[in-house]
């Protein structure tokens, strides 16, 4: 972890976080949207330099928390899941592999807390052009 100093003074956690967000926000990856009958989804991957600001233990974050990490999305998105091997298999319709011991083992040791899954109501921006009250 790089610690910056200004005028010989060590920066506070919040000052350092702000600098890191400005430095790494261009490296945040936003997936294309994907859909089911009810919701649209996307995943957002945080770069290495911002992962240290994720909550510990990892949990579902409120909107002000994920926006506070530099994530920029239009209104209506909610963080609903933390990504892991089990989720990769589910998203790719490979859930039958979950019955195997190896996959169950991998889902325990290889979570990806830096991949945040979001959803919002399908056609949100059309239904609520001025936001949801």
Descriptive report:
This protein is an alpha+beta fold and 133 residues long. It has a domain at 12-84 and 112-124: 2-Layer Sandwich (Cyclin-Dependent Kinase Subunit Type 2), CATH 3.30.170. 31% of the residues lie in helices and 20% in strands. The chain has 6 helices and 7 strands. It has helices spanning 13-24, 48-51, 63-67, 85-91, 101-109, 124-127, and strands at residues 5-6, 9-10, 29-30, 34-35, 39-45, 78-82, 115-121. Strands 3, 4, 5, 6 and 7 form a 5-stranded antiparallel sheet that branches. Strands 1-2 form a two-stranded antiparallel ribbon. The N and C termini lie far apart (41 Å). The relative contact order is 0.18.
Helix content: 25-40%
Annotated CATH homologous superfamily of the domain at 12-84 and 112-124: Cyclin-dependent kinase, regulatory subunit
Regarding CATH, which class of the domain at 12-84 and 112-124?
Answer: Alpha Beta
Secondary structural class: alpha+beta
Low-pLDDT regions: 87-110
- Beta fraction of the residues? 15-25%
CATH architecture of the domain at 12-84 and 112-124, by name, is 2-Layer Sandwich
Distance between the termini: 41 Å
Query: Which radius of gyration do the C-alpha atoms yield?
Result: 18 Å
Order of helices and strands: EEHEEEHHEHHEH
The assembly state of the depicted protein chains is single chain
Mean pLDDT: 81
Keywords: Cell cycle, Cell division, Kinase, Membrane, Transferase, Transmembrane, Transmembrane helix
Family: Belongs to the CKS family.
InterPro entries: Cyclin-dep_kinase_reg-sub, Cyclin-dep_kinase_reg-sub_sf
Protein name: Cyclin-dependent kinases regulatory subunit
């Amino acid at each position: 972890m790089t610690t910056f100093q200004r005028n010989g003074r060590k920066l506070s956690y919040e000052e350092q976080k702000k600098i890191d967000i400005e430095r790494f926000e261009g490296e945040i990856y936003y997936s294309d949207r994907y859909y089911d009958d009810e919701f649209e989804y996307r995943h957002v991957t945080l770069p290495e330099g911002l992962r240290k600001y994720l909550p510990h233990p990892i949990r579902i974050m409120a909107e002000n928390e994920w926006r506070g990490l530099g994530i920029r999305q239009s209104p209506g998105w909610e963080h609903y899941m933390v990504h892991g091997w089990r989720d990769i298999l589910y998203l790719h319709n490979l859930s039958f592999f979950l019955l195997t011991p190896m996959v169950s083992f991998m889902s325990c040791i290889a979570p990806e807390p830096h991949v945040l899954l979001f959803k919002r109501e399908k056609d949100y921006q059309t239904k609520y052009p001025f936001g949801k009250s």
